[in-house]
Amino acid sequence: MRSLLLTLLLFFITTPAFAKIFNAETYTLENGLEVVVIPNDRVPVVTHMIWYKVGAADEPVKKSGMAHYLEHLMFKGTDTLEAGEFSRIVRELGGQDNAFTGQDYTAYHQTIAKEHLEKMMTMEADRMINLKVSEDHFVSEKSVVIEERKQRTENDPRALFTEQMRSTLHVNHPYGTPVIGWMDEIENLQWNDIKTFYETWYAPNNAVLIISGDVTLEEIKPMIERTYGVIEKKELPDRTRAQTPPAIGESKMKLRHERIKQLSFQSSRLGPNYSDNKQDSLALDVLVEILDGGPTTRLYKNLVVDQKIATSVSMSYMSGVIDNGAIWLSGIPSDNISLEELEDAINDEIQNVINNGVTEQELKDAIQRLQDSAVFARDSVSGPARIFGYTLTTGSTVDDIENWPELIGGVTAEQVQKA
What we know:
Blueprint: H1 4-11, E1 25-28, E2 34-39, E3 45-52, H2 66-73, H3 85-92, E4 96-101, E5 106-113, H4 117-129, H5 135-154, H6 157-169, H7 183-187, H8 191-201, E6 207-213, H9 217-227, E7 265-271, H10 278-292, H11 298-306, E8 310-318, E9 325-333, H12 339-356, H13 360-372, H14 382-392, H15 398-402, H16 404-409, H17 413-418
Parallel strand pairs: 2-6
Antiparallel strand pairs: 1-2, 3-5, 3-6, 4-5, 7-9, 8-9
Helix pairs in contact: 1-14, 2-8, 4-9, 10-13
């Protein structure tokens, strides 16, 4: 299974090999707001996204869940909009809107007919600085967040287990804390703390505005200046985080639960992030494709089809982060196969690459599949906006996206084995 950034690239890119993928237009306002415009004239629709360079990993100690909670509260009104009015206006204009929070970013987006773009800019710029939340709405939304955690995590033993695994993997680092937060800390969050977080980090010079669709930069630049350009920049704090110490041993966890009827195995390792180690990250992307790029690739063919050790097996790699990336392997054993036997079989496949590398044909086929998968990219409006958002908020550049086919095409078998 591919990383989120890679998956988005594969499904939302269409371009001749080694040409720029999106031909995005960029500029920066005087107040520091980064702007990316991705022209796409297939339909008269635009996706408007504002990405803030702050997420769950930037929360104060003992205040977990604050960034995600703030995302919810951003829909609770400003000096000019009533609670819920933002989304109601979007729906009345025939559009869709939503938001999401990660460890390194928070993003808000609307997809709508292009004639309503300036209205979206006006409302989004408004809540960048004028958020106004009543005590009643703060309390009621806390109940919503708590219920969300119960449904997605507390009531799902597998989700709780994965949460514990992440906490064990990212020792002494905020990536080990769930984005939604720990339950006891969510319950104790106060509006003044979240308001301070909002006033500290939500600023034009800490944001990226991305417009994808039937527009050009020249066409919409005056709108951007009228809406976002009038907001003053802020003094931003340093974005410092604790560092994960080197691992000195292997940690193993087991969960037995009456609601789990099927055995499953997961393994996680720390890995490089893309912005700090581009070569190894690209090589690992290719490795994932060689091992888990389809029914004829190594993991599925060897363990599911030939040896019948597993009924499913997968590998993923997340490199689009500011700090440590993560590599995950998982599988479900066949009947009469133990978790230990499945673990050994998966590790044997990894060790085989370490010892013997990959073949030139495997490398060629994997790269070709990755580049071929990019065929339909430009048909999407929202996909490219997400790609640029994930990339630019985690330390990479526009060129990293535009030149991706050429970069992935330069990976060698030796680099894959080394990584």
